[in-house]
Amino acid sequence: MNLQGTPVEHGYYMPAEWAPHSQCWIGWPERPDNWRDNAVPAQRVFAEVAKAISRFEPVTVCASASQWDNARSQLPDNIRVVEMSMNDSWFRDSGPTFVVKKRESSAEIPSQSIAGVDWEFNSWGGIDDGCYEHWDLDRLIARKILGVERAPRFPQSIILEGGSIHVDGEGTCLTTEECLLNKNRNPDLNKGQIEDILKAYLGVKKVIWLPLGLYGDDDTNGHVDNMCCFVRPGVVMLSWTDNEHDEQYPRSKEALDVLTNCTDAHGRKFEVIKIQVPGPLYMTEEEAAGVVPSDDAKPRLPNTRLAASYVNFYIANGAIITPQFGDEKRDKEAIQVLSAAFPDHKVVGVQGAREIVLGGGNIHCITQQQPAH
């Protein structure tokens, strides 16, 4: 069911990711021109992510018709597996942005208290600059998920991916100029017009624009979910490096300058928690050789720096599901930083998350939370 008007006009807003969830949605990787070795290593890690999250909340994994049986065989019975066509498995970006509203009366049926924004999707940059040339199936994922859940849909023609925004649930949104102001997204809209849409569809009052995303995150043009996220209102976590010679350093420093010189929607100064990036990590010759080149997908080249970040975690009900990249020092340090930042959550590290970053993202990128209603 499509709703006319904006979510705010209907009393909806996007809650923070630490608000209670009814479930988590995850896609199932398969395309051999993005995932090495016919996606077998990536599927193994996706399954581990799904299993980790399912300890704390229900999980639905969507797989294509040809992969349904394979996905079902790799996942425990408590995880629902639904058949769904897709071009690739980045449900943070192709899935709906769920919005909720408070019930005005006890008689209001649950399905009316949750809805979804169906943003336009163009494969992170369109025919000339996107990650793959065909994305017709991904454009339908949000609509299909909302249909499965019988949730109202707010269609929106602006091109926007879920990984490009973070909200605190109290009126503040984080994003990056590198992504949302990129000419390959919405060249006819200026910053003010984009802000107006974010306010109308997310229920936010203030948008904080960081200049750039993570170094090397060329696939998404600098999504904020690799760079910075909310820990709680007034507190953010920022990807950081102490190495002033690292290409990441000026990006993190510029973001820190913005965050320390602005306030959130309630006038609070930000507390910034720094979390070191791993590595740097690079795609090996062997890893690149496992990807089957095609005319449809952006090539995966050896020695490319991987956009690896511990900020790219998933907040489940009572848990933080975070990537572990095989950098022993930084992996351990990240668990410690996250444990201190989220004292009421159990921090669960997923080994082998390097396989996800080889495809262009990480745990936050492959998941989409559905708030409880």
Automatic annotation (TrEMBL):
Keyword annotations of the record: Hydrolase
One example of a Gene Ontology biological process annotation: putrescine biosynthetic process
One Gene Ontology MF term: agmatine deiminase activity
Listed SUPFAM superfamilies: Pentein
The protein, known as: Agmatine deiminase
Record organism: Lithospermum erythrorhizon
Any Pfam family: PAD_porph
Domain of life: Eukaryota
HAMAP family in UniProt: Agmatine_deimin
